[in-house]
Amino acid sequence: MLSRYESLLSSSPLLTKSITAGFITAFGDVLSQLLEAHLAPSKIPFSLVRLGAFLLAGTFFIGPFMTYWFEVLWSIGRRLPKSWSKRSVTLTQVLVDQTAGVALFFPAFFFCYELCESLASGRPRFPTLAVGKIRNDLPAILVNQYKLWPLANFVSFSFVPVRYRVLYSNVMAVFWNIYLCAAVAAG
Protein backbone atom coordinates (compact mmCIF):
# COMPACT_ATOMS: atom_id res chain seq x y z
CA MET A 1 0.00 0.00 0.00
CA LEU A 2 2.86 2.35 0.81
CA SER A 3 4.47 1.66 -2.57
CA ARG A 4 1.18 2.52 -4.32
CA TYR A 5 0.93 5.74 -2.30
CA GLU A 6 4.57 6.50 -3.15
CA SER A 7 3.83 5.98 -6.84
CA LEU A 8 0.79 8.26 -6.72
CA LEU A 9 2.78 10.82 -4.76
CA SER A 10 5.45 10.84 -7.46
CA SER A 11 3.03 11.12 -10.38
CA SER A 12 0.40 13.46 -8.86
CA PRO A 13 1.59 14.87 -5.53
CA LEU A 14 -1.04 17.59 -5.03
CA LEU A 15 -3.95 15.41 -6.12
CA THR A 16 -2.75 12.51 -3.96
CA LYS A 17 -2.28 14.69 -0.88
CA SER A 18 -5.63 16.44 -1.46
CA ILE A 19 -7.64 13.24 -1.82
CA THR A 20 -5.87 11.71 1.17
CA ALA A 21 -6.63 14.82 3.24
CA GLY A 22 -10.28 14.72 2.16
CA PHE A 23 -10.78 11.12 3.21
CA ILE A 24 -8.89 11.55 6.47
CA THR A 25 -10.90 14.67 7.32
CA ALA A 26 -14.11 12.78 6.52
CA PHE A 27 -12.94 9.84 8.65
CA GLY A 28 -12.36 12.24 11.55
CA ASP A 29 -15.91 13.51 11.12
CA VAL A 30 -17.33 9.98 11.07
CA LEU A 31 -15.50 9.23 14.32
CA SER A 32 -16.65 12.56 15.75
CA GLN A 33 -20.29 11.97 14.85
CA LEU A 34 -20.19 8.42 16.25
CA LEU A 35 -18.65 9.71 19.48
CA GLU A 36 -21.24 12.50 19.70
CA ALA A 37 -24.05 9.97 19.15
CA HIS A 38 -22.63 7.75 21.88
CA LEU A 39 -22.28 10.61 24.36
CA ALA A 40 -25.65 12.21 23.53
CA PRO A 41 -27.95 9.60 21.96
CA SER A 42 -30.85 12.06 21.74
CA LYS A 43 -28.82 14.32 19.44
CA ILE A 44 -29.50 14.69 15.72
CA PRO A 45 -28.72 11.52 13.75
CA PHE A 46 -25.67 11.06 11.57
CA SER A 47 -25.38 13.94 9.10
CA LEU A 48 -24.34 13.10 5.56
CA VAL A 49 -24.35 16.83 4.74
CA ARG A 50 -21.80 17.47 7.48
CA LEU A 51 -19.72 14.48 6.35
CA GLY A 52 -19.81 15.72 2.76
CA ALA A 53 -18.82 19.22 3.82
CA PHE A 54 -15.78 17.90 5.69
CA LEU A 55 -14.84 15.63 2.77
CA LEU A 56 -14.97 18.58 0.38
CA ALA A 57 -13.18 20.95 2.77
CA GLY A 58 -10.44 18.38 3.34
CA THR A 59 -10.00 17.69 -0.36
CA PHE A 60 -10.23 21.19 -1.75
CA PHE A 61 -8.80 23.23 1.11
CA ILE A 62 -6.83 21.26 3.71
CA GLY A 63 -4.87 19.08 1.27
CA PRO A 64 -3.80 21.91 -1.04
CA PHE A 65 -3.21 24.36 1.82
CA MET A 66 -1.02 21.93 3.75
CA THR A 67 0.89 20.90 0.62
CA TYR A 68 1.85 24.46 -0.23
CA TRP A 69 2.25 25.58 3.37
CA PHE A 70 4.76 22.83 4.11
CA GLU A 71 6.67 23.88 0.99
CA VAL A 72 6.79 27.44 2.38
CA LEU A 73 8.05 26.18 5.74
CA TRP A 74 10.63 23.96 4.05
CA SER A 75 11.77 26.94 1.99
CA ILE A 76 12.10 29.08 5.11
CA GLY A 77 14.23 26.36 6.68
CA ARG A 78 16.53 26.26 3.64
CA ARG A 79 16.96 30.04 3.67
CA LEU A 80 18.05 30.30 7.30
CA PRO A 81 21.77 30.73 7.98
CA LYS A 82 23.77 27.52 7.50
CA SER A 83 25.35 28.14 10.91
CA TRP A 84 22.03 27.50 12.64
CA SER A 85 21.55 24.13 14.27
CA LYS A 86 18.88 21.78 12.94
CA ARG A 87 16.95 22.34 16.16
CA SER A 88 16.98 26.14 15.67
CA VAL A 89 15.77 25.75 12.10
CA THR A 90 12.99 23.39 13.22
CA LEU A 91 11.93 25.68 16.05
CA THR A 92 11.79 28.60 13.61
CA GLN A 93 9.60 26.57 11.24
CA VAL A 94 7.30 25.59 14.11
CA LEU A 95 7.11 29.22 15.26
CA VAL A 96 6.16 30.44 11.78
CA ASP A 97 3.66 27.60 11.43
CA GLN A 98 2.05 28.27 14.80
CA THR A 99 1.75 32.02 14.19
CA ALA A 100 1.34 32.89 10.52
CA GLY A 101 0.13 29.41 9.56
CA VAL A 102 -2.56 29.33 12.22
CA ALA A 103 -3.65 32.89 11.38
CA LEU A 104 -4.04 31.94 7.71
CA PHE A 105 -5.47 28.44 8.11
CA PHE A 106 -8.30 28.65 10.61
CA PRO A 107 -10.30 31.62 9.31
CA ALA A 108 -9.97 30.29 5.76
CA PHE A 109 -10.99 26.82 6.92
CA PHE A 110 -14.12 28.16 8.62
CA PHE A 111 -15.17 29.94 5.42
CA CYS A 112 -14.38 26.90 3.27
CA TYR A 113 -16.26 24.50 5.55
CA GLU A 114 -19.29 26.79 5.76
CA LEU A 115 -19.31 27.23 1.98
CA CYS A 116 -19.18 23.46 1.47
CA GLU A 117 -21.93 22.85 4.03
CA SER A 118 -24.00 25.67 2.59
CA LEU A 119 -23.74 24.23 -0.91
CA ALA A 120 -24.50 20.70 0.31
CA SER A 121 -27.53 21.74 2.36
CA GLY A 122 -28.89 24.58 0.25
CA ARG A 123 -28.40 27.00 3.16
CA PRO A 124 -27.39 30.40 1.73
CA ARG A 125 -26.06 32.17 4.85
CA PHE A 126 -22.52 30.77 4.88
CA PRO A 127 -20.53 34.04 5.27
CA THR A 128 -22.56 35.08 8.31
CA LEU A 129 -22.17 31.66 9.94
CA ALA A 130 -18.44 31.54 9.22
CA VAL A 131 -17.85 34.96 10.77
CA GLY A 132 -19.90 33.94 13.81
CA LYS A 133 -17.91 30.74 14.25
CA ILE A 134 -14.64 32.61 13.94
CA ARG A 135 -15.74 35.02 16.66
CA ASN A 136 -17.26 32.40 18.95
CA ASP A 137 -15.27 29.20 18.41
CA LEU A 138 -11.82 30.21 17.21
CA PRO A 139 -10.34 31.17 20.61
CA ALA A 140 -11.09 27.75 22.13
CA ILE A 141 -9.94 25.96 18.99
CA LEU A 142 -6.66 27.88 19.05
CA VAL A 143 -6.01 26.99 22.68
CA ASN A 144 -6.64 23.33 21.95
CA GLN A 145 -4.61 23.28 18.74
CA TYR A 146 -1.61 24.56 20.70
CA LYS A 147 -1.84 21.42 22.84
CA LEU A 148 -1.18 19.15 19.84
CA TRP A 149 0.31 20.83 16.78
CA PRO A 150 3.53 22.46 18.01
CA LEU A 151 4.88 19.11 19.21
CA ALA A 152 3.44 17.19 16.25
CA ASN A 153 5.03 19.63 13.81
CA PHE A 154 8.33 19.65 15.67
CA VAL A 155 8.44 15.87 15.19
CA SER A 156 7.40 16.28 11.55
CA PHE A 157 9.98 18.94 10.72
CA SER A 158 12.71 17.03 12.60
CA PHE A 159 12.16 13.46 11.46
CA VAL A 160 9.59 13.10 8.67
CA PRO A 161 10.80 13.33 5.05
CA VAL A 162 9.32 16.35 3.26
CA ARG A 163 7.26 14.27 0.82
CA TYR A 164 5.50 12.50 3.72
CA ARG A 165 4.78 15.51 5.90
CA VAL A 166 1.24 16.07 4.63
CA LEU A 167 0.50 12.35 5.16
CA TYR A 168 1.99 12.50 8.67
CA SER A 169 -0.04 15.64 9.37
CA ASN A 170 -3.16 13.90 8.05
CA VAL A 171 -2.62 10.89 10.33
CA MET A 172 -2.13 13.18 13.34
CA ALA A 173 -5.20 15.07 12.17
CA VAL A 174 -7.50 12.07 12.59
CA PHE A 175 -7.51 12.75 16.32
CA TRP A 176 -7.57 16.50 15.85
CA ASN A 177 -10.44 16.17 13.38
CA ILE A 178 -12.60 14.39 15.92
CA TYR A 179 -12.36 17.49 18.07
CA LEU A 180 -12.45 20.03 15.21
CA CYS A 181 -15.42 18.44 13.46
CA ALA A 182 -17.43 18.49 16.67
CA ALA A 183 -16.38 22.08 17.45
CA VAL A 184 -17.05 23.46 13.96
CA ALA A 185 -20.33 21.60 13.48
CA ALA A 186 -21.61 22.58 16.94
CA GLY A 187 -20.59 26.23 16.79
Automatic annotation (TrEMBL):
Q: Where in the cell is it found?
A: Membrane
For this entry, the protein name equals: Uncharacterized protein
What domain of life is recorded for the organism?
Eukaryota
User: Which family does the entry's similarity section mention?
Assistant: Belongs to the peroxisomal membrane protein PXMP2/4 family.
Using the record for this protein, list the coiled-coil segments as residue ranges, or answer none.
none
Bilayer-crossing regions: 51-70, 166-186
Which Pfam families does the annotation name? Mpv17_PMP22 (PF04117)
Membrane-related topology note:
Multi-pass membrane protein
InterPro entries listed in its UniProt record: Mpv17_PMP22
**Quick one: where is this thing mainly located?**
membrane
- Keyword terms of this UniProt record: Membrane, Transmembrane, Transmembrane helix
